[in-house]
# Entry
Amino acid sequence: MKKIIFGLATLSLLTISSIANEKADAYQKGCDLGNAKACMELGYMYRKGNGVPQDDYKAVKLYRKACNGGNVRGCNNLGYMYDEGKGVPQDYDKAIKLYKKACNGGNALGCNNLGWMYRKGNGVAQDYYKAVTIF
# Structure
């Protein structure tokens, strides 16, 4: 009985891994064809290590391509990478510019992250009022 359960668990993991690999392949093809959302989704997979090896440098490259292609979620995610120094040197000025671009494009998380930059005073003069108006 234990062998059957172990076998089923192993099969399930292999199936999930196969699906994740197919998803990554599909996003890569879409990104190569200029689909900014596909670039952002693939970047997220690399950032988290979901179905692909975790790689912040690849995530940054893909988020940049997504942002340059007009995907504001990609701009927010790239801003986060600069904010935290993940895959790139920490750079609050770049993070703020990217959060602003995301926020101005209607990305609520970009607005939230920009608000926190003002709340904490990271890369800007600390300004609680401005933070609240952005949140």
About this structure: The two ends are 55 Å apart (CA to CA). Residues 11-15 have pLDDT under 50 and may be disordered. Residues 4 and 47 are 35 Å apart (CA to CA). The chain has one domain: 2-134.
